[in-house]
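Data availability (excerpt). All sequences and predicted token strings are deposited with the supplementary files. A representative entry, S-adenosyl-L-methionine-dependent methyltransferase, is shown inline so that the format can be inspected without opening the archive.
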Amino acid sequence: MGSVSLKIGDGTARFKKGTLCSSAVNLLMLFSVITTNLFALYAFTSSPKHQQSDVSQNAHKNLSLVSEQVSLILREISFSQRKLAKMEKELLGYGTIDISRPNIASELKLFLQHHQLPLGKDSRTGITEMVAAVGHSCDKSADLLSQYMTYKVSGPCPDDWSLAQKLILHRCEPLPRRRCFVKSGPKVGLYPFPTSLWKPVSDKIATWSGLGCKNFECLNKKKLSRECVGCFDLVNGYENKRFVKARGKTDFLVDDVLALASGGMRIGFDIGGGSGTFAARMAERNVTVITNTLNIDGPFSDFIAARGLFPLYLSLDHRFPFYDNVFDLIHASSGLDDGAKLEKLEFLMFDLDRILRAGGLFWLDSFYCANEEKKNTLTRLIERFGYKKLKWVVGEKVDGTASGKSEVYLSTVLQKPVRL
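Structure token line:
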């Protein structure tokens, strides 16, 4: 019997024709049938010759014993079947969120219900029902999730993008779909591409609800991250010089890196790309770059889109929604590491390796190393992938804050090998 289960690790619905559990149960049933027949054969033929005259008297006892054994085996099969089904649910996260809770929103219950196919089993895929994809950690934020799913159907969506992002940052990703209309007023001040790449973005284009600052002038006075100090200012400051003018030896120029590429450069992926300046530089060189970002303390997605670039609103805990070996270039900086355990960074690095084509470049740009141990740990991790080191520079930069403290950074350009 086909089934559908929720694969929580990558946040997508996965369909399967046969499971490990069903196979195990079938083998167990086959084993029980064979055992039962062998036991019956033994029961009727194992009596000594001098007791054959008592066969008629013992037949009833033997049949009763066989019946008891069969009943015992059937009970064991039933128990094993229930146990295997429970294990499958626990492993795959199937039915993780308890929709019977009294505080669960009706829309969430409807979205999470298993929807049977109208014609039964699909002959091509073997599935019998559809199951919605929801992040497994959503169960830990059930109250927030229920609040997110409380709205008027076919009405305007609540102004709660900050709530949605809070759920994402609590590892509740992907979020359920909603049946409401997002506010979409006219955006003024947009410029045609490629003029839009370096034109100041109007405050009216961005969504400011849930943010401390209400305009870009306010944001440019703050250090939002190591890569975003005045990064929304496209006219003054350093943003319009990034990747074409170096401030230190760990700042690689984009043309120098592209000269190292083999097989051409067409599409790239930027991790934690700030306001999208790297993608803008690549767009000037006819390379399409997707910028991964969240709206942490600023409307990064609005700003990147206003520049005519492609923002991908996705956390680094989510498996990247790209096929294997598709990108020519991956660019990342200190945003690659959130201070978690090494194992988490390993999972992320393996996923980046998955989507980078053989011969493609991995550009680690001014990665902040808190100490020598951090640098050595990162170096060992990188060397495990067997990439060719095209550029490798360790240097110091002065902290952009008033402290003026010197910090250690690693910049490298690596080339992915062919693996057969």
